[in-house]
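name: query_chain
kind: protein
chains: 1
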Amino acid sequence: MLLHDPHVDMSVRDKSREKLLESANAILHLTYSLFSTNYDIILLDPVVVVSLKPFLPLPLLILFCKWCWYTAAYAFVQEMRQAEHNGQTSQAAALRSQIDVFR
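structure:
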């Protein structure tokens, strides 16, 4: 998503758009899976520390949960705007319900 979002043109069906929406749908699916459990999502840490190799002096910090949810929701908003522009009201309504998951 990080690579494709700056280059995507939602009005054209290209590889960047397909990859962006594929990633957003994967995040949505994981979010549904998380919400179907009894975990308290408020306790999720927005920063996850990941180390590429054991004993690295400086771990790679990845802003994970909030960034993923924001980027996926933003991709759906862009797609919804394009669907509304093209007059596809049923697709726009479906995308609106997907965006509401991230609220």
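note: Residues 15-35 form the longest helix (21 residues).
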